[in-house]
Amino acid sequence: AQSVTQLGSHVSVSEGALVLLRCNYSSSVPPYLFWYVQYPNQGLQLLLKYTSAATLVKGINGFEAEFKKSETSFHLTKPSAHMSDAAEYFCAVTDRGSSNTGKLIFGQGTTLQVKP
Amino acid sequence: KAGVTQTPRYLIKTRGQQVTLSCSPISGHRSVSWYQQTPGQGLQFLFEYFSETQRNKGNFPGRFSGRQFSNSRSEMNVSTLELGDSALYLCASSLDSFSTDTQYFGPGTRLTVL
Question: How near does any CA of chain A get to the CA of B93, in Å?
Answer without folding.
Answer: 9
